[in-house]
Known about the structure:
Blueprint: E1 4-7, H1 12-23, E2 28-31, H2 34-39, E3 51-54
Amino acid sequence: MNMTIYSCETHINHALDVFVAGEGKFPIMELLSDEIKLSTSCAYCEEAALYVVANK
């Protein structure tokens, strides 16, 4: 199962904690491209997502 969490700057630590708790391992964290930032919001608020936290 692939877990993917989109996160803003404010919620990145929470997203990392949720991922590790759910998957039992540390995720890959990457900055989103400008194109994706425009259409993707944070999983925890209405702000634009800056990061994606995911499996490989």
